[in-house]
Amino acid sequence: MPYHPIHVGIIGAGMSAQVFHLPTLLTTPAMQVTHIVARQPPTFALPPHISVLPTVEALLNTPTLDLVIIATPNITHYPFAKQALLAGKHVVIEKPFTNHVVEAQELITLAKRQNRLLSVYHNRRWDGDFLTVKHILASGWLGQWVSFESRFDRFRPQLKANAWREQNLPGSGVLFDLAPHLIDQALQLFGMPKTLRADLQTQRDGAIVDDFFDVWLGYGTLQVRLSAGMLVRDVSPRFAVRGTQGIFTKYGLDPQEARLKAGELPTASDWGQEPAEHWGHLQAECNGLHVQGQVKTLAGNYPAFYRNIAAVLNGQAELAVQPEQALQVMQLLEIAHQSNSKGETVTIEYT
Q1: N or C: where does the chain have the smaller number of CB atoms within 10 Å of the terminal CB?
Q2: Do the domain assignments include residue 326?
Q3: 151, β-bridge pairs
């Protein structure tokens, strides 16, 4: 079935727009990026058909615009999304959804009232390593799951000059930067936990916001550990999954971000594929046999996010990243701050 063209405007001309959103939008057949909002001229080349606008208001006053992508600092997600929904536009917000649960709830209610699509860019559901872990868990090879560890570690001892993520602002810090990815992936695998315990630290010289987190999600006999730090020089597993019958470990990061940063468009035949030296390792008991060896990483697929958005707007699919799912991520982020400030495990209550 042919697609109806969807006219897209992007708010923000930073790394998020340049690396993640624009390349996948430009290679999604139904999407036509027409405008980008930038306070300063973009530092990267734009196709000639994309106009640069100075203000959000100028973008929202464009009558032909269908979809607005918000790729700006976290503190602006809520007000820009609210403006766009009130202007009758569909909206995709870069993660995290908002800085507060009440803001996310308000946007969900507003989107329903306006009858407009609202989604959050949880693109790492299409990391190849995560897709592989998801497949292994579904296969039953590991038996009953007992522990799951997911990490985004980096070694960046120096602060970034003028980086808003390292300033004392709402939504700054590594918890709001990286935990949304890890939490969303955990929720996709296991659903909402019963308990949460979090430890946030400010470890680097001169840092004023958290640059390390350890978040433990309790699911009864299954314990899920999500962690990230900026002073981790040693190599830790990206994933380590243990069960009563085996273990799967995976090192290294999905290659899509690096290729996008290098200026590639996600159109190559080998897009999202990892070389064999980065594949994960499985040890398990299967039908009485001990099995061990490499597991080929499934191909990652960031373009799937906007292909889904296009299909939804053309009435051909259900929305993959529901705003209510992103709301759950926000709820766990807020509970993590509560747990850290109280120094205790929080029991999660459901309504």
Answers
A1: C
A2: no
A3: 227
Instruction: Establish if 324 belongs to a structural domain.
Output: no
Q: Find tokens 């973008």 and name the residue.
A: 59
This prediction's pTM: 0.95
Residue 351 binned pLDDT confidence (cut-offs 50, 70, 90)? low
DSSP reduced 3-state for 89: coil
**200 domain-assigned:** yes
Q: Going by C-beta distance under 8 Å and a sequence separation of 6 or more, which residues neighbour residue 232?
A: 153, 154, 155
246 and 340 fall within a common domain = yes
- Six token digits for residue 72: 């700006």
State which residues form the domain around 27: 6-123+304-319
CA 22: distance to chain centroid? 16
CATH of the domain at 243: 3.30.360.10
Residues in CB range of 256: below 8 A, 6 or more apart: 127, 128, 266, 271, 272, 300, 302
Quick one: tokens of 154? 């980096």
By the 10 Å C-beta count (0-12 exposed, 13-18 middle, 19+ buried), 321 is classed as buried
Shared domain check, 216 and 177: yes
Give me the count of residues in the chain. 351
**For residue 67, what is the domain's CATH number?**
3.40.50.720
Helices (H), the chain: 15, 22-26, 56-60, 77-86, 101-114, 128-139, 174-190, 256-261, 303-313, 323-342
Q: How far apart are CA 105 and CA 94, in angstroms?
A: 16
C-alpha 256/C-alpha 301 separation (Å) is 8
What are 305-335's pLDDT values in tens digits? Answer: 999 999 999 999 999 999 999 999 999 999 9
The answer, yes or no, to whether residue 77 has pLDDT greater than 60, is: yes
Number of domains within the chain:
2
67 and 210 within one domain: no
Asked if 34 and 50 count as a contact pair (C-beta separation under 8 A), the reply is yes
Please report the DSSP string for 187-199 in residue order. HHHH-S-SEEEEE
In order of 51, 88, 251, 271, 285, the CA distances from 255 in angstroms are 31, 36, 12, 9, 30
